[in-house]
Design a protein that fits this description.
The chain is α/β, with parallel strands linked by helices. The chain has helices spanning 18-27, 88-107, 129-148, 163-167, 186-193; strands at 3-6, 12-16, 30-34, 39-42, 55-60, 65-72, 78-85, 151-156. The longest helix has 20 residues, at 88-107.
Length: 219
């Protein structure tokens, strides 16, 4: 991890080695600007007097954790690497908790906000709150890093796995629609899968239904 450097006008310069940053701070040539990510401000340098190399940001998005790497354009050397932990599950649990609390107040006949079902419209391009949080987290950090480092390009890794092609590299066209279940009815396939016997009690030679166990309620 290198240290981000700004000139006295807060323009981004090339990141420097941590030892160099400590020396500049000890001599009074630089001051602390931000602790995370660690950034210093040079008191005697402007961007016109420095040689600045272009950098690029590479994003590796994930459902729980996303990675960000900053590379120098010319050498391809990684100068900084960060990990962002997303709050998707926390947001999901918070929304479920709120829904349960509102439902409980309605059932207890206490003061509550009336349920709204007929006026719920979703805008075009709407994202679920957990996914929207991930997108905004990446956007926020990219915007911050662009102010601290001379960024000229942003790249994002997009990976898609074709599981059928992993099994059959020569698959193409309509063959994607003719998998293992092609020619089978769903019920017939399930009967073959479970050996034509009940998955609960192993009963055989009996008319099997989707669910042949009937619950007996209290009278």
């Amino acid at each position: 991890m290198r240290v981000f450097v700004l000139d006295k006008n807060l323009n981004a310069l090339d990141p420097c080695h941590p030892a160099r940053a400590r020396e500049l701070l000890r001599k009074g040539r630089a001051k602390l600007f931000r602790r995370y990510p660690f950034t210093i401000v040079l008191q005697d340098r402007i961007i016109e007097e420095s040689v600045v190399h272009p950098h690029r940001i590479k994003l590796d998005p994930g459902s729980k954790t996303s990675g960000i790497a900053i590379l120098q354009e010319e050498t391809g050397r990684v100068t900084n690497a960060l990990e962002i932990t997303h709050r998707g599950q926390q947001i999901k649990k918070a929304l479920e908790s709120r829904r349960a609390l509102r439902r409980g107040r309605r059932n207890r006949k206490t003061r509550y906000r009336k349920p709204r079902f007929l006026n719920r419209t979703r805008k075009a391009g709407r994202l679920p709150p957990s996914l929207e949080s991930r997108v905004l987290n990446l956007e926020t950090w990219v915007r911050r890093l662009r102010k601290l480092c001379p960024i000229v390009a942003i790249l994002q890794e997009l990976v898609k796995f074709d599981t059928q092609q992993l099994q059959n590299p020569e698959i193409s066209g309509i063959e994607y629609q003719r998998g293992e279940l092609f020619g089978f009815e769903v019920k017939e396939y399930l009967l073959e899968k479970w050996g034509r016997k009940c998955v609960y009690c192993d009963a055989e030679n009996t008319p099997l239904e989707v669910e042949h166990i009937h619950l007996v309620g209290r009278s």
